[in-house]
Every structure is written in C-alpha cells, then in structure tokens.
C-alpha cells in the first residue's frame, strides 16, 4: 500500500504524452480532463503519503519531477498554442528548469530532500487551476488570461525566491 503515492506520481508522468497528443489533435476537452486527472492525482498522492506516512525517498523525487515535467510540457504546448503569452510561459519554464536542475544536483549528491513547502504547493495549484481554465475556455478575454497568468507567474517567482534559503541549507549540508 505504501507504494500507491509513487504509482500515482508515475501515472502523472505517463499522462504527459497523452495530454500532448490530445492538444495536437484539437481534443481540448479530453486534454483538459487529462490535466485535471493529473492535478487530482497529485493531490491524492500527497495526501496519502502524508496521512499514512508513506513518504519515501523515491516519492520525494518522483512527485516533484512529475509536477515539473507536467508543468514544462504544459508551458511548451501553451507557448505554441498562445504565442502572445510567451513571456509568462518563459518565466514559468525557467523556474521549473531551475528546480529540476537544482533537485537533480542535490539528489546526485545524496542530500535528503524534505519535500514541497506550502508556497510551492500554492504555486502548483494556481498553475494547474489557471492552465485548466485557459484550456477549457479558449475564448477568454485577453485581460482575464493576462490576470490568470500574472497571478500564476507571481506565485511561481515567489515560490522560487522562498526556496532559496532551502537550497542554501541543502548546500551547507554538502559543505559543512
């Protein structure tokens, strides 16, 4: 039973090509359902891991990797679908790539990661809500899309800044 959160995280990674396929072929409703499924399984795997103490070192890597891979994929797809908003997606992509590289750096050096913080979770939830809203309602007025993307980007930047002390703490563990 303690592997369920990891299975859900792996399932989220498996959903990524199906999401891309549906967007490419214009099946927006199916793509949105896949994205919603990904977001819900993210919530469920985190809840199960914490509630039943099923937190594993693999899960500490797999869960954020699934988040970042999904977010990077959505950003790339959305840059193609909505090039007028490329600046927002560029910031989000940069943030996610920094987190992926930083996480890989610490994992390679066998640093035990503590898992996501509340500000990272808020950023992830806001990302998924905004992207699902944008994909489900492609005719939204640009001002509304700009507002959603602005809030999402601000939350992402804030999370990145708030994670800096965490990364510094991890780095100090490497060089005491």
Structure description:
It is built from 6 helices and no strands. The protein is mainly alpha-helical. α1 packs antiparallel against α2 (about 30-50) and α3 (about 55-80) packs antiparallel against α4 (about 85-110). The protein is globular, with a radius of gyration of 16 Å. The model has no long low-confidence stretch (mean pLDDT about 90).
Task: Note the run of SSEs as H and E.
Answer: HHHHHH
How far the N terminus sits from the C terminus, by CA atoms, comes to 37 Å
Q: What is the correct CATH architecture? A: Up-down Bundle
**What does the radius of gyration come to?**
16 Å
Say how many strands there are: 0
Shape: globular
Examine the coordinates and then state which fold CATH places here, giving the name of the CATH topology: Four Helix Bundle (Hemerythrin (Met), subunit A)
What are the key terms here?
176 residues; Four Helix Bundle (Hemerythrin (Met), subunit A); 0% strand; 6 helices; mainly alpha
What is the topological layout?
Blueprint: H1 4-24, H2 28-51, H3 57-81, H4 86-108, H5 118-136, H6 142-174
Gist of the model:
This protein has 6 helices and no strands. With 176 residues, it is an all-alpha fold.
């Amino acid at each position: 039973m303690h592997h369920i959160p990891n299975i859900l995280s792996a399932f989220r990674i498996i959903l990524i090509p199906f999401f891309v396929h549906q967007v490419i072929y214009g099946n927006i409703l199916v793509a949105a359902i896949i994205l919603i499924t990904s977001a819900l399984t993210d919530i469920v795997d985190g809840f199960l891991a914490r509630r039943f103490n099923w937190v594993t070192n693999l899960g500490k890597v797999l869960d954020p990797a699934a988040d970042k891979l999904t977010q990077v994929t959505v950003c790339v797809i959305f840059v193609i679908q909505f090039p007028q908003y490329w600046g927002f997606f560029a910031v989000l992509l940069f943030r996610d790539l920094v987190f992926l590289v930083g996480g890989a750096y610490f994992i390679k050096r066998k640093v035990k990661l503590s898992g996501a913080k509340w500000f990272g979770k808020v950023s992830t939830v806001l990302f998924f809500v905004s992207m699902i809203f944008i994909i489900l309602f492609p005719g939204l007025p640009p001002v509304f899309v700009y507002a959603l993307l602005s809030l999402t980007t601000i939350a992402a930047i804030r999370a990145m800044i708030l994670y800096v002390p965490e990364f510094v703490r991890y780095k100090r563990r490497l060089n005491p």
